[in-house]
Amino acid sequence: MIASSADFLIIGPNNSLAYLLADQGHDVWMADLRGNRYSRRHTTLSPDSRAYWDYTWHEMGYYDLPAMIDHILHVTGTRRLHYIGFSQGTTVFFVMASSRPEYNEKISRTYALSAAVYVEHVRSPIFRWIAENINAIKYFLDTMGLWQLLPHNKAQYALQRTLCPPSIARNICVQLMELLYGPNPNGTDPLAQHVIAGHNSSGASSKQLQHFAQLNRCGCFQQFDYGRKELNLEAYGSEHPPKYNLSAVTTPIVIFYSLNDWMVDPANVVRLASELPNLVSMTVVEDPNFNHLDFMIAKRVRELVYDKILLDLNLEA
Question: How many other CB atoms sit within 10 Å of the CB of residue 192?
């Protein structure tokens, strides 16, 4: 969420996952989900309209990801592909694989990095506060006509450059990242933090955040709760949102998680793993300080995570 495909390139050749995959001869397709800076060319709706932002990650998993997969398979002429998702990238996969189980047959194996499915246990004080106050926050944002969350624009980028210069090791941006993702001052390159702050946030809908906050409050993995029984009845035919059926996820799943992840606690990952019918492996990152964002920008992320993915892909081939 609030990220883009740029995150898979952010720490450059010989380090970023997209480069490493391409260097080994893999055909690499990078997804940009609706609403981020690279994915706003809706055929009928303007990004300035409320209707444009009326979605959560459910629509991404139910409509967008299947469309991407079908397009890739059509263009390449192959029957299956490998899927690598980080954080919300795993959320949308599990929405698709549970709600549209026919797509399990189109995925050879999924690599889930910091799988954001169950988010009941969260150490980030920022996210915990947001989750506790989400209805008031959403009402305020809607009243102000702010259906888009943290858009990428020149003003935001200029503010970031002014307040968060890379010459200051623990500038405001770094401190906010630590409060969101978990502190790991020696594990992340300051320049990488500065670069990613220049790309993110990349935009999202406030409804996306509200949906994640609902998962935190209910301790479950379910569709969006409209807050009133009659609205849920209208949308789902039941007073409560349907839960996603994880037992329908038959794709082979490889999970990587970390102990210092303040957004996706290890307890959440263990719970997810226990409900998957085709779990291949579950690997904890061998660095106790490795945090949520480190899956994209840590100094040692290649040796700790990416090389293991590459080895597994080669063994499977």
Answer: 22
